[in-house]
Amino acid sequence: MKTLDRWLTSPWRRSAAAAVAGALPVLAFPGPALWWWAWLALVPWLLLACTAPTWRRAAYDGWCGGFGFMLAMHHWLLPNLHVFTFVIAALLGALWAPWGWLVRRLLGGAPSVRRVAASLVVLPSGWLAVELIRSWEGLGGPWGVLGASQWQVAPTLRLASVGGVWLLSFLVVAVNVAVAVLVAVRRARVPALAGLVATAAATSAAWLWSPRPDAGERVAIAVVQPGIVAGRDSADRRFDREEELTRRLADRDLDLIVWGESSVGFDLDDRPDLARRLAALSRETGADILVNVDARRSDKPGIYKSSVLVGPDGPTGERYDKMRLVPFGEYVPARSLLGWATSVGEAAGEDRRRGSEQVVMDAGDGLRIGPMVCFESAFPDMSRRLAADGAEVLLAQSSTSTFQHTWAPEQHASLAALRAAETGRPMVHATLTGVSAVYDANGARIGAWLGTDASASRVYEVPLTHGSTPYVRYGDWAPHAALLILAAWAAAEGARAVRLRRSAPRPPAPPARTAHGSEARPGH
């Protein structure tokens, strides 16, 4: 331990150690998908920050750890954004600087039992505040929220139905704090163990008593994944491949067919021949087809990404224009300032236009669907709104073809399990190039994934559900509660500082001087 302490006295070595410690939680996400690792992965980072020699160093440890976390979580952007990936990681990593300071404030030195007990709720609340801020679309959205690492664990998915992915993040951080206390603060083991028991009790209570969605009838939904189609005339050739795969679905008694993001590269009003071909496919298969048009609109200026429903007579008029765009991929934030990113990477040359509202569509026979496009599936509030508005099936049309051989496709597909569990609605994640996946209302996978090597169409029997989850009814109460905890702790610390200042002994008054310049002493 002493050797390690001496090694960490170098600021550069300590910064590197913090960055590596911050990157460790990424192993809990796909591709490695070591979900259990999330419950321990923050411990090295916590131990480093709480042993920082000064509060400034602790804040810097938080920043470096945040940089490592963001860089590791988004490392697959490097071939496209190049050096800008490091800039983004550094800017977002700064959000963890106050969290590093908070770790040292609560666990540094020889913390009292009271401080340790407070750390079990304050530090998870601080982490949740960071996740809430960085989840703003302009800062990249909620990709890599810590609770999302638990997408394949049934008990934690039950918790998601109560408090969303935010509640999972809170509990994961709380367990990490408790383990760090058990390692570093042996005399405060009782509150640490109490925190672990409370987490286990909360999970068990959610498993037993949180309402389960009532399963009803099943619908047959087909996903069409054409695979990589590149080169000249790729939009036309991709449509041909999707048409071929869809035609194979005839006589399957389908309720809906879903194509991926950017599956149609032309506005259907400009290409009535494509609209007629889609209508013919709908007649052959007996199902409406949800396509995604990525093209310049003929009825208004600009390029939109739009989910368009096509029936046997052509487009039904049901349309959803993507509202939340991918920073740099679909628009450049503050283009006048950051437009140079287009010269060093593959940032959008022209900003896409935004839709104005979410849409629940009628896909025929009373089936109501709620479409989202691409990384909109990362936003819990969007799927929650669709479920509250009556969507029976949630849909995400995605591509991720740019990041085909990275961790991104699997990470993206895993998010649908969280959205399904939160809302109590099944969710279909349909892509151009994989990974496509379908989940039931509990977040459990239905059938097999369509991987990145597949060019195929597949039918899934999806059970519909009724009822509502606590998360749909009460929304983001978990992050709001975290902000209240932080505010209450700050108020208590302020009151404590005032009391200490008032009770501190006053320094003795300087001796008074006489008219002759001599000091007047008591008794003289």
Q: Helix segment count? A: 18
Shape: elongated
Widest β-sheet, arrangement of strands: 5-4-3-2-1-11
Backbone structural class? alpha/beta
The count of strands amounts to 11
**Alpha-carbon distance between the termini?**
61 Å
The biggest beta sheet reads: 6 strands, mixed
Structure description:
This protein is of the alpha/beta class and 524 residues long. 46% of the residues lie in helices and 14% in strands. It is elongated. The N and C termini lie far apart (61 Å).
What is the secondary structure topology, with strand pairs?
Layout: H1 2-7, H2 11-23, H3 43-50, H4 55-73, H5 78-81, H6 83-93, H7 97-107, H8 113-134, H9 154-184, H10 189-209, E1 214-225, H11 234-247, E2 256-259, H12 272-285, E3 288-296, E4 303-311, E5 314-321, H13 335-338, H14 341-344, E6 361-362, E7 368-373, H15 380-388, E8 393-398, H16 408-423, E9 427-431, E10 437-439, E11 456-466, H17 470-474, H18 477-503
Parallel strand pairs: 1-2, 2-3, 7-8, 8-9
Antiparallel strand pairs: 1-11, 3-4, 4-5, 6-7, 9-10
Helix pairs in contact: 2-3, 2-4, 3-4, 3-9, 4-6, 4-7, 7-8, 8-9, 8-18, 9-10, 9-16, 9-18, 15-16
